[in-house]
Amino acid sequence: MSKFFISVIKAAIVYFFFFQTAAYAAPGLPEGIEWLTNDSDPVYASPEAKKGGTLHSAIPSFPMTFRVVGPDSNGSFRGAVLDNQLSLIGMHPNTLNIVPELATHWAFDKDKRTMYFKLDRNARWSDGKPVTADDFVYTLEFMRSEHIIAPWYNDYYTKEIEKVIVYDDHTIAVVSMKPVPDLHLKLGIAPTPRHYYDKLNKDFVRKYNWKIAPNTGPYQISDFKKGKYVKFKRKKDWWAEELRYFKNRFNVDKVTFNVVRDYNVQWEYFKKAKIDVFSITIPKYWHVKTKTAVVENGYVHKIWFFNDTQQSASGMWLNQDKEIFKDKNVRYAFAHAMNIGRVIEKVLRGDYFRLEHGFMGYGPYSDNTITARRFDLDKVDLYMKEAGWHRGKDGVWEKDGKRFSVEVTYGFDEHTPRLVVLKEEAKKAGVELRLQKLDQSATFKKFLEKKHDVAWMGWSTSLRPQFWEHFHSANAHKPQTNNITNTDDPEMDKLIDAYRNSLEAEERIKLSLEIQKKIHETGCFVPTFMVPYVRQAYWRWWKLPDTPGTKRSGSLFDPFGSTTGGMFWYDKAIHEETKKAMKKKEKFPRVTIIDETYRMK
């Protein structure tokens, strides 16, 4: 038998294996399916919106890759890429009802494991190819492949999603491994273009590091220069432009992200209109730095918009693989040595709120009885002595020739004043903090490689608490996972596994509360602040709807996100008016908007 013929047989066997495990053909749809859609929830974009213009923005570092899976892909820029990839269905940001994206209709099977979808026949990839059922089949094959080097995705798409059933090119079912509540949150998966990833092999990470994969959303990367900028361009005649929940959104023609590494330099660029929008959530900017000519003269507007959504798990993440943090008493002492209240009062002008634990804002899934450990010198003393430490000559705790001195790694210059206050206050408790500021990409890479002592960071949120990624031992003691505390607790694992396998919402809620108590008991995470609002400054030629955002808006000038993005627009006439006024040194009324439509109760 020839080598060629053998290779053909091997390839066929591999394809057959993946096809049988990821996709199933079916003779026909089950009887009695009740097809659902949603064309009646309120729209939240403005009919006054206009197309055109370029949004100029800044990023502190160039992305390490354009891939959205695999090594170094889990950085902040990943969101800009993913936000231009639609899923089968979305969620209305105010009603939380299902809304169409790539699917026009959906249905639930009585087995509580299966959802059926009718694909929009107009849906297209950015290269013009139609989106078909096979692209969803390929998502499972792709995410299960060892070649993408993405353990979390390998695990999830193997253990959580059983298969995709193909009825025809535009009708599919997605099947969960088990019945779950909120089934739509799990099965509304995104497609992956098989025609693009034609040969998925061991070269994937290198080959696709800087490739621009086709997507289904409104924008696509059009140009980039490593270390300098990334540009996106709105698609002409985007297939979904007139759909109910996308109409009058995604209005700017182009979005440019220039690398400006220093936040203060970004502010100077903003004042010169080289950047169009600037976050002024930091109190120093809202209260002090905006007392500048462009704001006082009315050329730049300020807005304070309250939202009502899940809060980022922001704080100090202790690496329990480091010898000093293996003792729970020491972790407790560290938490009581952090004077977060002093930072809120002294640095943050009382504008921020104390985050009590890592899962606030999830409704019944949040344990609101948990409170963060407060600054308490007596408790520091108690726990450190319990752990067998004593105060050294310089006041820092010592044991066996080692000092209680840890490195706190962070990636944002504006956070330095907060950490300086924490450092000074920690001295009173006999704890030495060594502050290490790195580039944001380097910071996150260090965390994922588990080389940190203390990680100063916040995680993005989801609609339900996610525990497995951050606290299950399956993700401990290895790089490129989100368990950056290296939590390895068999009892915790059992609770998390039960939560993942739970069939009933009531049981999941109960388990969620138990897991949160368990996390609090470990002392591996010191919660810091939460900010249930958005504060931004923007040049007056940018316009927002009457209600500027939604309950879930994390930014009023997010250009891409399918749920809350793209609600703003550019007004050329006002831009021209403003430029003339600035040239003549004429002024407009100063504008500060405070919108409490969705303020958390």
Compile the SSE list and pairings:
Blueprint: H1 3-22, E1 23-25, E2 54-59, H2 78-82, E3 89-91, E4 98-100, E5 103-108, E6 114-119, H3 133-144, H4 151-159, E7 161-168, E8 171-176, H5 183-187, H6 204-207, E9 219-225, E10 229-234, E11 254-259, H7 263-271, E12 277-279, H8 283-289, H9 293-296, E13 300-306, E14 313-318, H10 328-336, H11 340-346, E15 353-354, H12 377-386, E16 390-391, E17 397-399, E18 402-403, E19 405-410, H13 416-428, E20 432-437, H14 440-448, E21 454-459, H15 468-471, H16 490-501, H17 505-522, E22 525-527, E23 529-530, E24 533-539, E25 542-543, E26 569-570, H18 572-584, E27 592-595
Task: For this entry, give a set of tags.
globular; Dipeptide-binding Protein, domain 1; five-stranded mixed β-sheet; 601 residues; 18 helices; Dipeptide-binding Protein, domain 3; alpha+beta
